[in-house]
Records
---
Amino acid sequence: MFRSVQPVAFGAPSFEGAAKKFIPQKGEHQLLLSELDDHRTLADKTAYVHEIVRQRFPCIDRIAIAKYDPSDDTLRTLVGSMKADNPLILYEAKLSDVPSLLDLVLARETRVVNDMRIFASRNTIHSKKILEKGFLSSYTVPLFNEGDLIGMLFFNSRQCGAFDDSTLGYLDMIAHLLTSLLAAELVQISTLRGALKTATQFTHHRDPETGMHLERMARYSRLIARKLGVSYGIDDGFADRIFQHAPLHDVGKIAIPDRILLKPGPLSAEEFAEMKTHTTRGREIVSTMLHNFNIKNTTDIGMIRNIVAHHHESMDGNGYPDGLMGDAIPLEARIVAVADVFDALTSERTYKQAWSNDEAFVELDRLSHFKLDPDCVAVMLGAKDEIQEIQSSFTD
């Protein structure tokens, strides 16, 4: 069954406005207003909304959101309301490779499947995983903000025939609420990244690095995170955040004087000591901007500070600024370090030619014995096709 869906249009939506508009019972929206505050992650908010939904419809066993990235036409799992036994995590697919979802987007329709066993013969990973976990019916909603696709919303049940007209009317209102929450998350991320990216771009006007360096290393960082996966405690939210925040790693270089930043030859010991302060200065700049822009998401704040401050730490403890060793170095900083080094090696600079990927892989392997995280390096060495695709899509 297909039903039309209307885009939600707003600028910077407030949770309060969304809840008042879309939660049908006063008691429920008052409860949500007290819980859906800016200090909780989108995953927390989605899980809480699921609790509210299950109070009315216990048959709704799962709510999940996939985020759409138009730059590479890819849907990536973002949040799921199930704390354990989640059927899909760290999964991605090109929208153009999933005709059933692409058709919904193009037609701006929702889809009800009340017996998912009709998909049993399909050779798709997501269908198989959903069925393997016992889900038998689904309701799929494309999420639009101001006319643009931002994601897909999935309601699942382990019962056949769980989605009738009474259920769908309520879930449509929940879908609007979750659209506003996702859009609000994107607005906050965009504001934060825009502010810090502006400072970073000032740096890159002075620092002779290639134009697509930040785009590539952000995608290498996400690639490493997703392939390290759940064995490292990484979920979809972590992988998405590291993609968003990896480009901010050198924001502190804006505080480094030109005589050092633009020096064509080797730095003296004193100059290198000052260059190293871009990590601690960057952390100060980030703190100031977070305060000025009233960003309160502690998960993002912690990751950004760790990336900016610790991407030059070394596994053997000989890095800077704090001489952290091994697992004491935050995981996000270890990931970004590998992504940054690889792209620096394979990019042309005024002072060197670009290395081939094979040459860079040899150097990464060498550095993994003392400087770089060996597991992160192993991911890069085993992802040559994905790396080539990123390089082809984001050439200088």
---
Amino acid sequence: MEDIKILIIYTAAYILSFITGRAGLSALSAACLIGIAVFIYLKEKLISKELLNLRGLMALGLLGGEGIARLQLSNLSTDWTLSTWGSFYIFYLIFYFTSKYTEQLLDQKHFFKISPLTDSKKSKLFIFKAVILSVTFLSWACFFFEAWKLQFIPLFTVDTPHAYSYFHLKGIHYFTTLAILIPGVTMLYIDQRHKLSLLPDIISGIGLFAPLILCVLLVSRFQFMFAAILAIFVTMVSGKKYKLWQILILGILLILVYVIITIERAHSVEYLNGIFEMKDPHTPIFITQPYMYIANNYDNFNVMTQKLSLHSWGLKMLYPVITLTGLKFLFPSLGMAFPLFTNKEELTTVTLLYDAWYDFGIAGVIIFAIILGLVTGIILYVHTKDVNPFSRLIYAELAFYFSFSFFTTWFSNPATWFYLGFSVLFYMAYHISDRFC
């Protein structure tokens, strides 16, 4: 009965948003989608007792983003096609029920024999130390190698808006940016030390600040935000309760660094306002920029449904496999570039669903929803049972990707799987040490 209620409310919200949008009532159309996103998040929070509940975060990130896009504050905003509406509606519906029933089935059948989460004092601190120090050293070594080879450091360039985009050596840069996982690992390390009544040590400081400094040198807003937010998410998943003043301070600090990095990227306010084409030219940039980072992605998806004439038949979503295995060098045709459909050349961010639709249309969206729902259900089940602290790192990474599902096609990005792959290696290393040490 509860599931039927969710289905009815969810469907009604989409129908109302569609009707009011077609009638030109943008604010009301937006309110319907934002409302259902908040409703689902709060419902999932009540059930899971967690702020970072994956189904709820996906609702806020994807459905909430759709609602913001429906505000249509920019002249770039367009009327969505039926394919766009149908894809957005069906994806979250399938994802929600697939993940929910998968989690319930695993819980009932006890498919995995996992020890319940405990506060065991048998912490393997040396694993954390090894991960923090080795990855930090590796990332900084790769950074200096890239700087030497390319003869510049992005932070110290002048009048070069896209300096970071040119600071890449194939294969090497993955390891340069691997350090963004370390603040999250460090928070797990600090938590383990706390359980042993130990204070943070010098390794804690290295693990927290060395990766963030590296992100600033790279002038990468995404890398900095990912590293900082991942660390915060890990502490929340570990049971840390933030007070309101702490959340405000963290938010202000993140915004300040974001603004500083933006300035260093040499983008002027006039440049940004000219690109975003807001209907109200006097809209402050601190509203314009985040709005466009969310809203335009959905309009880009809509442009694709109008202009795409030939699907990529799986090659877009399989790009990480083709890249990380080196298949693109053996079979160059597999690594072919597919045209990116956007409403403006400079605005290239897209939603989580872009590549799935690019591959197979709405069928690709359905397949992607089923697969992601199955994986999410498994992760949710394991999260409540597993004693391995690195499972929290993996959970926190998914929480980040779901929260920012409006921003890009995370799971067809090789870097996403590179980071997740190393997180699994950390998990396995801790598991092995717990067995034999």
